[in-house]
Amino acid sequence: xxxxxxxxxxxxESPAQLLDKFLQRTAVGVFVLTIKYVVSAAGFVVSDxxxxxxxxxxxxxxxxxxxxxxxxxxxxxxxxxKKECPDTSGYVIEMFKKxxxxxxxxxxxxxxxxxxxxxxxxxxxxxxxFINAILAFTLxxxxxxxxxxxxxxxxxxxxxxxxxxxxx
Length: 168
Known about the structure:
Blueprint: H1 3-10, H2 15-42, H3 48-82, H4 91-120, H5 127-156
Helix pairs in contact: 2-3, 2-5, 4-5
């Protein structure tokens, strides 16, 4: 291991960086949950054999969410225990909030469309299918919007050196 990578490995994250990392990992976990709900909804319209495999895939995806989010969640809880909570007015937090509002708003439009489709075209599907589809839509819109908003900022400001900043 060279000098630079050993310095990066020994560097302690600032509370703000840890919060950003927690929110970003949460968004990734939410996207994995989106896939889980899509698979769950698909289980109602595919063959029994595929539905059985879908059940196993859902278990794997649930474990993956824990692997992605839980370690940084524990670090974030440790900050709260130490009373070192970061300021909650950062850019990543604002994008997280904007994404949540957009997902919430678009969910109502999706609910109206689902109600119309359920009454006209999707007759006979169980309620759990629609619940899974709605959850997949909401979580998918949230996670995708979050990353699109963050990416748009990265494109606008190539001089941002947040990744190279060191903690206090």
